[in-house]
Amino acid sequence: MEEDRKRYPWLVPLWNRYGDEIAAGKVGRSWLVEQAQLSHHKSRILVRWVKEHGSPLERIKKAATAPRPPAVDRIEVDDQSVEPLEVPIEDLIEQRIHAAERKLSKAQAHVKHLELKAEPVGLFIMGDPHVDNAGCSWGELYDHVQLVRKTSGVLAACVGDMQDHWIGRLGRLYANSDVTASEGWRLSEWLFGSMQWIALVGGNHDSWAHSPGMDPYKLLTKKFGVMAYAPDELRITLRWKARPDLEPVVWILRHDFAGRSWFHPTHGPNKEAMLDGRCHILTAGHIHQWGQLSTEQRHERITHAIRVRGYKRNDEFARSKGYSEQQFGAAALIVIDPEAEGPARITTFWDIEQGCDYLTHLRARKPPVGQ
Q: For position 37, what pLDDT does the model report?
């Protein structure tokens, strides 16, 4: 056998491939020559090998039934160690039930039901501020904050990216920054403390500031009394006190919505409005473009898909990618008149001062219930 293996190195591979079929009579020399394209010499030797030594399957069966050598004497060992305690299975299942309940309850952080007086109210939607970036248009941002501060009935919200928070290979960009990390947090705190806030969602830059078990924006929003915060998405339902007859306003706030189209920057939020069927306002930022798409959906709900541009200017990344830089739309003021119907119920202003004037006019015409 060994002599044949050394003499014919091709023999064992062919035996493994065709041996079982040859032994079973399914394959003969003619088939090996015509179909497997073996030479007559190889086919003759292969068939002879199978007859003399059997097929691979027969060899396996023979090895399995061969008597085993006698067992050697085994050393007797007594295990005196103490078995570790395990949680009883009933307790383990109960723990998993409570863990699942806690996990599911965390989803409620993304859903808020807020009740406001049944009077006109403004939502000041800030685009990505990037307050610690040298390109942040602080003059424009400061003017907007002052307008909001002196206008009654305005609540502030932001679509995320409060700061740059460069990490990893992007950390090299701090070399071009004249704002220290601590100054960035001071600027953020000023912004939170300068207005009454209703909502904040985190952006991709904000997520870079997270560490295990620590979300600094969760702490800041709690410190400054922001009504709703989530690192990714908020679904807020605004209801009207003592007026159950007035339809609530459902608002989805995200840093971005899935979906892009070069025809319109609000493709993502408008697509979500079409699919959701319950929301009225959808706001986003992220791509540093602005736009609005207000329409009546097939489910007869008027929706407002809004994307705010943000305050960052002279963006090197945008220039490197060939993106055009827009000049307007850093923020928007959404005015809600809960008693109005149709398109007049929700109005969006891209001129913040004009929007504040309109809100002041509405509130003067419609004093709160009880006054």
A: 80
Per-residue pLDDT, 13: 83
Q: Please indicate, yes or no, whether residues 9 and 115 belong to a single structural domain of this protein.
A: no
Question: Are 274 and 223 contained in the same domain?
Answer: yes
Strands across the sheet with 331-336, in order? 228-230, 197-201, 154-158, 121-126, 331-336, 346-349
**Do 114 and 60 reside in the same domain of the chain?**
no
- Paired strand residues for 305: 282, 293
Both tokens of residue 231? 């690192």
Is 82 inside any structural domain? no
The CA distances from residue 164 to 139, 185, 274, 285, in Å, are 18, 11, 33, 15
pLDDT digits (tens, 9 = 90+) for 115-128: 999 999 999 999 99
Q: What gap in Å lies between CA 238 and CA 107, rounded to an integer?
A: 19
CA distance 304 to 312: 24
pLDDT digits (tens, 9 = 90+) for 143-156: 999 999 999 999 99
Task: Determine what percent of the chain is predicted with pLDDT higher than 90.
Answer: 60
Residue 58 backbone phi and psi in degrees, to 5: -65, -40
pLDDT digits 0-9 by tens, 163-194 = 998 888 777 676 677 888 899 999 999 999 99
- Write out the two tokens for 222: 């709690």
pLDDT > 90? residue 31: no
pLDDT of 7 strictly over 80: no
Range of the domain at 358: 103-365
CATH number at residue 110: 3.60.21.10
First-to-final CA distance of the chain: 109
